[in-house]
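Fold description:
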Amino acid sequence: TPDAIARSAAIAACERSGQWRAALHLFAESIEGTLEPNLVTHNSLISACAKGKRWAFALETFVGIRRRGLEPDIISHNALISASERGNHWRLAIQTLEVALESGLQPDTITFNSTISACDKGSQWLQAIGLLREMQGHGVWPDSISYNASISACMRAGEWQAALALFEQVKVQELEPDTVTCTTTMSACEKGGQWERVLELFGELRGRGLPADVMTHNALLGACHQGQLWQQALLALQDMWQTGVGPKLTTYIKVIKACDRADQWEQTLQLLEEMSSDGLHKH
């Protein structure tokens, strides 16, 4: 009916603008009235709840699809996986993927990438790598987002060897590593005390003409601290200012640690003065 179409369009508009409360309200009005929500309406509400990090509402809406005699499609499952990822519920994301597969649905890149991202947030690196391999068995080819999320999961779990192996795999698959790929791998190696590998990765990032962000420099500075490379740490700090990447408090702390470890107390005092003049203070 025209009213049902209008209500569905309104919920979709709420989803696009991130108004999950308004979407829930409109959906509740549909159920209480004579307008029976269709699958598109359900999917829009699940997506709205995902954007609002309301995974429980998203799950309730997903379960309600079958209660109303409808059959969830891959969009329904993708929306719930996204809600699980944003709500830090990696188990629910994996379970939703499994339900989709058991239902005979064809997962796509979004399905797997969202599930891998959920595993990343949960530091479930083995699950992430497993999903990366499983993708190809379902005719879905991993992209840069797939690898970046898997490398991030390894980084969070302190598995620098696995992160480095995935980084090399990116190149074998003829995917171009981006700033996120390089930076996340650098961070994994820095956490593992592999400062020489961090320097190599930074060199590769520069060689590819990729921009370095704050996270990139922080990983580099952590490596400088580990390797007692105080001069390189100062050069990295200078590079940040020159390239317009504003150093943060954590950046200065890493440079100070590098100088302090090398007994460069004069440089340490100068950096503390710079922090004060730049308005960077510990609270």
